[in-house]
Amino acid sequence: MKKQAEFRLYGIFGNPLGHTLSPVMQEAAFETLGEKAFYLVLETGLPGFRKFLKSIKHCRLEGFNVTVPYKEEACRLLKHLLPDAKAVGAVNTVFKRSGKWIGTNTDVYGFLTSLEKDAGFNPQGKQVLVLGSGGSARAVVFGLALRKVSRITLLNRHAFKAKKLAAEFKKKFNGIEWNADGLASSVVGEALKDADLIVQCTPLGMKPGDGSVLSDELIPKAGAKKKIFFDLIYRPAKTKFLTQAEARGHKVINGAGMLVYQGAKSFEYWTGKRAPVAVMKKTLCEALEH
Ligand code: NAP
User: Fold this and answer.
1) Residue 113 · residue 137 · CB < 8 Å
2) How far apart are CA 270 and CA 57, in angstroms?
3) What per-residue confidence (pLDDT) applies to 5?
4) Residues lining ligand 1, CB < 6 A?
5) SS (HEC) of 48-89
6) What confidence score (pLDDT) does residue 176 get?
7) Which of 89, 97, 87, 93 is nearest to 105 (CA)?
8) Burial of 11 (0-12, 13-18, 19+ CB in 10 A)
9) 81, 75 contact by CB (below 8 A)
10) Ligand 1 center to residue 253 CA distance, Å?
C-alpha cells in the first residue's frame, strides 16, 4: 500500500482571526523549503485557549503563534519562556525543544526590523509616542528601550494600564524618560509635537468605518523634519491614522513589514531553517492586494 505523505501542523490562536494573513505567508514559506505543512487558523474563546495551554503536553502541533487578545495570557500560562518573552510580558510564538513547549516574542524583532530596514529610522536618542498598552505595545516599547530611545510616552484608553506599563518598564530601563496618561488627556498634543516617532498599537482602524485614536487637529503639520507614523495594523493598508498623518506631510508605514519579519522569525524557531523572507513578503503583498 502506498504510504501517505506525512505533514506537520502549525497554527495561530486568537480571536477574531478573520483578518489574519499569517496562513498564506507561512504556507508559502513551507512550500518554498519543501516542508509538507499546514498552518491552521484556531479561533478560540478565552476558556478554550486556557484549557488548551493547560493540556499543552498533548498538543499535536509542531509550533504555533498567539495573537490578539491572548499574548499576555500565554505569557502567564506557559511554564517555559525565553528571556525576551518574560521581559516583554507577552508571547506570540511557541515552539518545542526536548519535549518542552517554550514561549518567545518575535514581535520585538519584527517591529525593529521593519522600523530600521523599511522606514530607515534609527531609534537611538529619539522621542517616541506609543498609543495603546496591550500585548503588541509591550513588544514595541521593549524594542525601543533596547535601542536606547531617550523618551517614551505611553497613552492608552484606560490610563491606568499605560501607567502600570511605564512603571514596570522604568524599573528595567531607568535611563529613559517615561511618561504615561490617557488617550483623552491634555498631554496628547504636546506629546505629538515632541515625538520623532508615533506608533499606533490598538486595533482601532481595522474595521470598515473605524476612526483613529488621534483627532485631526492634534496632528501638527510636518516641518523640515518629518515624523514617522507607524501603524501596526496592515489590513487595511492605510488606516485613518495613517491617512491623517500623510495629509499633514509625515512619513507613514503600516504593519505589513513587521508581520513578515515576526513571522519569519517564528518560522525559524519552528523549523531551524532560514526563512524565505522575500517569498513571505511577496505572498503577503499579493494577498493584501486581493
Ligand atoms: P491587545 O493586547 O488586545 O491590546 C489592545 C490595545 O488597544 C489596548 O491598549 C486597548 O486599550 C486598545 N484599544 C482597543 N480598542 C480600542 C479602541 N476602540 N480605542 C482605543 N484604544 C483601543 O492587542 P495587541 O496584541 O496589542 O494588538 C493591537 C493591534 O496591533 C492589533 O490590531 C493587531 O492586529 C496589531 N498587531 C500587528 C502586528 C504586526 O505584525 N503587524 C503584530 C502585533 C499586533 P485598553 O487597555 O484601554 O482596553
Assistant:
1) no
2) 16
3) 65
4) 68-69, 71, 107, 110, 132-137, 156-158, 161, 201-204, 206, 213, 232-234, 255, 258-259, 262
5) HHHHHHHCHHHCCCCEEEECCCCHHHHHHHCCEECHHHHHHC
6) 98
7) 93
8) buried
9) yes
10) 17
Return the closest-CA partner of residue 15 out of 68, 90, 94: 68
Strand 80-81 relative to strand 100-104, pairing = parallel
pLDDT digits (tens, 9 = 90+) for 146-183: 999 999 999 999 999 999 999 999 999 999 999 999 99
Relative to the CA of 256, which ligand 1 atom is closest?
41
Instruction: Please answer whether residues 272 and 128 qualify as being in contact, where contact means their C-beta atoms are separated by less than 8 angstroms.
Output: no
- From residue 149, alpha-carbon distances to 99, 177, 178 in Å are 39, 9, 11
Residue 267, C-beta contacts closer than 8 angstroms, at least 6 positions apart: 26, 29, 273, 275, 280
> Is 117 known to be catalytic?
no
Q: Spell out, as residue ranges, where the chain has pLDDT lower than 50.
A: none
Write down how long the chain is.
290
- H or E segment at 153? strand 151-156
DSSP-based three-state secondary structure for 41 = strand
Of 251, 159, 248, 237, residue with least CA distance to 205: 237
Within 8 A by CB and 6+ apart from 20, the residues are 12, 14, 41, 67
Amino acid symbol at 79: K
